[in-house]
Amino acid sequence: MGRKPSVRLAVVVILMRFRFLRxxxxxxxxxxxxxxxxxxxxxxxxxxxxxxFGHGLLSKAEYQRVADLxxxxxxxxxxxxxxxxxxxxAAQAVAVLNGLSASNVTVNLIPSPRNAANQAxxxxxxxxxxxxxxxxLGYGSTLPVRSSSxxxxxxxxxxxxxALNAGGTGVTLSGSAAVTAPLCAVASNASxxxxxxxxxxxxxxxxxxxxxxxxxxxxxxxTGGSASISKVKTSDPLASNAGVIAALxxxxxxxxxxPYTFTPLSISAGIPLNFNFSILGLGALLSALPxxxxxxxxxxxxxVTCAGYPSYKFGTITVxxxxxxxxxxxxASSTTYNISGSIVNAGTITFGPGTYNFTGxxxxxxxxxxxxxxxxxxxxxxxxxTLSFKAxxxxxxxxxxxxxxxxxICNTGTATFAGPSTFALSSGIFNGxxxxxxxxxxxxxxxxxxxAGNGDALDTGNNSKTTFADATGASNLFQLxxxxxxxxxxxxLTLSAAAQHDVDGFFASAGGVTLGAxxxxxxxxxAFGPSGGVDVSCNGVTVGVAGTGVTLxxxxxxxATGSSCSGTSFCLASGYSNVTFAAPTSGTMANxxxxxxxxxxxxxxxxxxASTTILSGVFYYPDGPITLGGSASIxxxxxxxxxxxxxQVSISGGATAASTCIGSGSGxxxxxxxx
Length: 675
Prior knowledge:
The protein is of the alpha/beta class. It has a domain at about 30-155. The chain starts with a helix and ends with a strand. The model is unreliable at about 1-20 (pLDDT under 50).
């Protein structure tokens, strides 16, 4: 009985607690409703922010994709055009195609963030996304979204051997040809053919039609490993070169320049003088002399002294074999001698200074010496013995018959014209077999030579030696209005150094040729050894073909004949053992050694087997095939370069070491995204 009140108390306590919980439960249900009512907008706001800012992240990813595409497109456009305007337009066009406005895209050309030595195209895209729910919670009405990309441009290796014609045979090797191009590319807009026993070692090899043919894996890297071979169209790296443009434009000037024309002189007839061994003839001779002149002599030795008059008139002067005549002038060198006829000398004559006007010619079979002066000779000069002039001005017409044609100068002996001198010859020069002809001296000579009756400005015979002194003065000319036909066997030909050599005709040679520095423009073909060439000892030096600081330009208006060069507009044939063609190292024509015709298919052949060959510079034939033949090693001289650009390039035999002379790239770029 004593424990019953405690049980009741416990039951009461439990009941009381149960009522409290029920009351609390009833009160808590109301609180949750209030909390839910208050918290729901907050939850909705956070959800809205998550949706709208999540959309911003998706937009950023999309804009990054567009920025990458735009930067890449801009880099490709700049690489092909070099224009920042074109670059920007290309990048913005890609963005517009992907739904953006051009105003959202900023394009710049900057140093690459990966390698400052290279350029890069940077593209930044900035756009503000409109927020709809976030402003309810106090956020702004827009969300800025930005993305950027950088496309680095690295120049592809420049082509040092390039075949431009996509429809041709491209680059073709044969025989045992070995091409090395360790710092540049061998490129073809067609394909490449590298058969067994031939090799190409290059930094890169490109083609544009079919995969290169290399039956014995002859295309390798410079170290012998796998080559970089890719399908790329290569543009002409010299199409806009200032030197090439100037050289080809000058061809039209050569085609149209006017040759020198001798103007006939009006001289009244004089009394002929005949110097011989006749003592009795002296009296008659004295009566024939012009006023102011006196002749003294006996037994074939005469002295004619003239003084006191500014000019003298003679008829034809004839000196017989074995007779010596000296003409002495007392007074100024401005004395004028008017000779209404010719000088016909078989003996020995010495003339003093002055101006000599001839209505006829100078014909020498003895020894004839002239002092410095001006010589106007209407019907030409011929020499078969010894003829010498001091420095002067030589205006000479045509009419001397030799070599089956008519010339201004016919020389079959030894003729020397000192210098510096000016030559204006209307009808060409013939230097015959075993003859020696030296035109000018020093550096400031000038040459205007027209064509003989056969169209040649210069013809040379076997074993002849012909020298044109330098014409390097600013006003000096080297103009030949006819062909250079120097095909005499074992002959020596030396041409002037001159800024510009203009030859309105072709060039053909067979012996040793030394080309003075400068640009040579031929309105016709250039053929060294069209029927074979040979080295010659010229002035104690063995010469094949030598030209340092030269650029050879051909119009391709004609092509060569002969077994070695038939059908070509440039040819170096077999037979020479010493060959040097080296381009200028400075100026507009720097590194340009041979330039072929534009827009005219014309072959170029370099077939020499020369054991010592230097071909330094760009061999440029944009519209004609180039053939390198023989077994010569070319392009391997330290400090020099060899770049070959033609419509097609064929190399048969020998070793060709190619390198870039002009241009640091092929016109294409390697493009990669770097950031």
